[in-house]
Amino acid sequence: MFDLSWRWFGDIHYLVSDQWAGVISTIAAVICGALIGAERQRAEKPAGMRTLILICLGSAIFTQASILIVGTAMIGDRGRIAAQVVSGIGFLGAGAIIRERGLVIGVTTGAGIWATAAVGVVLGSGHIAAGLFFTILILITLTAAGAIDRFIMGPCRYETLHLIFDPADGKTRYKIRAILDSHQHDLDVRFEEPAEGRQAVAIQFCSTHRDHRTFLSALIGLPGVLHASDD
């Protein structure tokens, strides 16, 4: 039933029945979506494993549907439904991109959604080897970006941001924590005890890489912050 020759690097519809081709394409879409999603989830990005599995799987299903519909009716364009995935996924990717205090955040997440959908289309069309290759290429791009950035910009150089703020019954402190958590800040943060109606915090950050200090403008712009300095 199965041919294990080099022909598996092409369209599997020429090697197995349509039923088996659909099963193999669907399983491959789940695996590829999980691989990309695991990397994104490890980096604590909004689009994690479940999201990217569903994106890859949904794209593969739509592509298979277009093939099946045309194959049954013997008329129409088998790429029409799959083509709508390209435009439709753009809305989902755009939703992951936000503009916050002059900074554009989530572009990589949006691009990852778009690329994962493209892998799903390739897998749904029956080109399993090509889909796996593109998945590996995406993973290499995502994981190597940090290493390339460190190679070009050099290692992190750490500084400390000192903020004096109005505690506002503890509200400002929780706002600071929320901003740090949303930017996946994992360096040292030290709050001092309130004195004379004010409180201070020392936040360590990397001043070398731009993406490591994007939270600074959000912190300084908080209404309760009275003074900011670094060393």
Key structural traits:
231 residues, alpha+beta, Alpha-Beta Plaits, 2 domains, 4-stranded antiparallel β-sheet, two-stranded antiparallel ribbon, 7 helices, 13% strand
Kindly provide the radius of gyration, computed on alpha-carbon positions and rounded to a whole number of angstroms: 24 Å
**Alpha plus pi helix count:** 7
Q: What is the strand content?
A: 5-15%
Order of strands across the biggest sheet?
4-5-3-6
The N- and C-terminal alpha carbons lie at a distance of 69 Å
- Oligomeric state of shown chains: single chain
Shape: elongated
Number of strands: 6
Mean pLDDT: 81
The percent range for helix content is: 40-55%
- The sequence of SSEs as H and E is HHHEEHHEHEEHE
The stretches of 5 or more residues where confidence is low (pLDDT under 50) are none
Descriptive account of the structure:
- The mean pLDDT is 81.
- With 231 residues, the protein is α+β, with helices and mostly antiparallel strands.
- Helices cover 55% and strands 13% of the residues.
- Strand 1 and strand 2 form a beta hairpin.
- It has a 4-stranded antiparallel β-sheet with strand order 4-5-3-6. It has a two-stranded antiparallel sheet with strand order 1-2.
- The chain has 2 domains: 147 residues, no CATH class; 73 residues, Alpha-Beta Plaits.
Outline:
This protein is an alpha+beta fold.
Topology:
Layout lengths: L17 H25 L6 H25 L6 H16 L2 E3 L2 E3 L1 H18 L3 H26 L4 E8 L5 H12 L6 E3 L7 E8 L9 H5 L4 E6 L1
Antiparallel strand pairs: 1-2, 3-5, 3-6, 4-5
